[in-house]
Inverse folding.
């Protein structure tokens, strides 16, 4: 089967240069691009169908949750996760499987509140006449 693709001279030169860089003919290049695009769209439609099915199933199991919330949770679940990386921080040298004993190693049980400010935040409650109910 012959297929004719109309391109500008600039597009043709670019395509020929690309094919030459990859050691391929224009025919092979266009064919591989076409079928790669078909595979991507097929995979995308399958993934979308699975996501829709999962959304329906989760929404039916949790009728009290808004659908948008469920969509966000399911989308977050699919996102790749990476460990935090703190440059020049002792967190990078910690054992990720540390036990509570490891975390509290060296803690002597003595705690002081020196760093905590006890100044009130906002307006304090001060009763006008403590103990005397106000009435008419």
């Amino acid at each position: 089967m012959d297929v004719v693709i109309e391109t500008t001279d600039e597009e043709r030169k670019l395509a020929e240069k690309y094919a030459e860089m990859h050691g391929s003919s224009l025919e092979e290049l266009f064919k591989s691009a076409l079928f790669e695009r078909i595979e991507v769209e097929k995979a995308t439609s399958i993934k979308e169908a699975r996501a829709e099915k999962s959304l329906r199933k989760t929404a039916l199991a949790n009728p009290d949750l808004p659908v948008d919330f469920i969509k966000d949770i399911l989308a977050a679940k699919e996102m790749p996760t990476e460990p935090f990386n703190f440059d020049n921080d002792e967190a990078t040298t910690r054992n990720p499987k540390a036990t509570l004993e490891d975390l509290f190693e060296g803690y002597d049980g003595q705690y002081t509140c020196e760093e905590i400010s006890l100044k009130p935040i906002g307006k304090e409650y001060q009763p006008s006449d403590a103990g005397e109910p106000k009435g008419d």
Notes: The longest helix spans residues 26-61.
